[in-house]
Amino acid sequence: MSTRPDARAEVLRRVRAAQPTAPVRVPRDYAADDGPAGVELVDLLVDRLEDYKAAVRRCTADALPAVVGEYLAGAESLVAPAGVPETWLSSFEGPVARDSGALTVADLDAPGVAVLTGCAVAIAQTGTLILDAGPDQGRRLLTLVPDHHVCVVRVDQIVERLPAALRRLADPTRPLTMISGPSATSDIELNRVEGVHGPRRLEVVIVS
Fold first, then answer.
1. What pLDDT, on a 0 to 100 scale, did the predictor assign at position 182?
2. What is the model's pLDDT at position 132?
3. Among 14, 152, 184, 190, which residue has the least CB neighbours within 10 Å?
4. In the CATH scheme, what is the code of domain 37-207?
């Protein structure tokens, strides 16, 4: 009979021996960067978004409908979550479908369909827009299937870094979509292909 210890028992013994006897405390002293977004922070977000091949416009709240209308000029139809204000849609002349959960992938993937949403928070350092399925953002399906996404970002939604963004989210356990530019990938020869797993066109309106 072999006197060698059972391999599984030995592995478990080593795991138990390696476990700390007291709870491990992870430092959470991240820099507090939740202050109001200044001009430099907005400039940084614009720079990162444009570097990711997104189109960006800045405007006042009064000019927002006109800017949205310009971005949607080539769209045949528009999908908007229930919480998107009517004023955002006022300059679009085509049909608008308010999503109630009934729209399918086939509906959203039809030619000429665009989607207009807000966002939960924007990270300047990485050029990332975070959507958390809020009333003006809707289901994840809305922003992953259509070929054209127009996203409205208020200046007071811009933070510098990810820790501050996570603190801004009302419920971090909700489904999050993090968007850094139009959908794109590269093959082994580094040929960029856009629109593979999300919108080919991302247009962002930053409202002061």
1. 81
2. 94
3. 190
4. 3.40.50.10420
